[in-house]
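wait is this the right file?? whatever heres the structure
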């Protein structure tokens, strides 16, 4: 058994989500959003951290890490537990972060996702964006969506991820998993290939660069249903981020494609419960309306807040309204709601 596995089993035993290793520090685990040091382990020296990281990466990936300073891959324990692994160099030496990937794909009910998420599974084409900061549950939400489609519809689905996280077995759908780095060189190359593969649905693990975003928009314009992720915490910031990725001369063209293809933005954040025993999800949901294309074309994303509030009855909700409801239901504290809120003034005088 690799030496690092004992740390993974400790993480699992503590119901943690992430293991953090950094040269010069003790190992740390994240439990319900909070980092805790494993005091029964020594400070990690360069010699030891390199030994345990090299043992599970193998020589080829380790050399890639030495050359680039970062690598991402999936690692699996003997008991079937899987981890999304990221190695990195930092000021004090070497480090790594491991995210535990749940062994079972959770359903909409398990995750208590908003009811409108099921309607996203029925879309035939367009762009659906699931957004939020790192560790906010984007991959878990997308896995639930793909699993529901797999159970209810006959489609061909291609996922492009780095690394592959949730493994979906074919039910009604044909699902092809492709991993950046081993099955395709880049997200953009994987997307370009997917456009030619008669796919009904494409999941893009991360829309991180201009070429990937443009290809995702092209796929949506061609009549493919595209699910993608971005690290934004609201619908307005998501649309602005996509447009701002492109140079000035191209912005109007991208606005036009986005106006024609965007079906929904599901932004989410996780907030620690009052007793610290779990985390609650807060959502901002923007769905396609007759007014949305004009708002995108005009670049006036400030209007999205009123658009969301106007259509609350069909399942739209703002991030601040979602946080306010969690506070009123006594699930989260006022302080945590304030920290996560977009409009801080709404939460200053809450009691």
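ok assuming it is, sequence goes like this
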């Amino acid at each position: 058994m690799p030496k690092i596995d004992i740390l993974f089993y400790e993480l699992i035993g503590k119901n943690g989500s992430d293991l953090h290793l950094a040269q010069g520090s003790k190992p740390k685990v994240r439990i319900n959003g909070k980092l805790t040091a494993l005091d029964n382990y020594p400070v990690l020296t360069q010699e030891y951290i390199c030994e345990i990281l090299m043992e599970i990466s193998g020589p080829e990936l380790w050399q890639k890490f030495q050359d680039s300073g970062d690598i991402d891959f999936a690692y699996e324990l003997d008991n079937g537990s899987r981890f999304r692994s990221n190695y990195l160099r930092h000021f004090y030496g070497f480090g790594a972060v491991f995210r535990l990937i749940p062994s079972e794909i959770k359903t909409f009910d398990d995750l208590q996702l908003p009811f409108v998420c099921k309607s996203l599974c029925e879309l035939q084409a367009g762009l659906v964006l699931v957004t939020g900061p790192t560790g906010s549950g984007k991959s878990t939400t997308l896995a639930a969506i793909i699993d529901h489609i797999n159970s209810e519809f006959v489609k061909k689905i291609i996922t492009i991820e780095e690394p592959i996280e949730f493994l979906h077995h074919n039910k009604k759908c044909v699902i092809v998993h492709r991993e950046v780095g081993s099955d395709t060189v880049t997200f953009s190359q994987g997307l370009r290939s997917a456009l030619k593969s008669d796919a009904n649905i494409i999941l893009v693990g991360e829309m991180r660069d201009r070429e990937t975003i443009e290809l995702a928009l092209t796929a949506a314009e061609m009549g493919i249903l595209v699910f993608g992720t971005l690290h934004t915490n609201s619908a307005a910031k998501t649309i602005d981020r996509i447009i701002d990725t492109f140079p000035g001369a191209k912005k109007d063209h991208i606005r036009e494609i986005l106006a024609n293809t965007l079906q929904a933005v599901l932004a989410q954040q996780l907030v620690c419960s009052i007793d610290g025993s779990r985390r609650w999800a807060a959502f901002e949901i923007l769905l396609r309306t007759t007014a949305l294309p004009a708002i995108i074309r005009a670049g006036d994303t400030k209007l999205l807040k009123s658009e969301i509030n106007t259509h609350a009855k069909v399942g739209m909700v703002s991030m601040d309204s979602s946080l306010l409801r969690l506070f009123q239901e006594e699930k989260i504290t006022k302080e945590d709601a304030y920290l996560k809120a977009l409009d801080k003034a709404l939460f200053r005088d809450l009691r």
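The chain is about 40% helix and 25% strand. so i think its the right one actually
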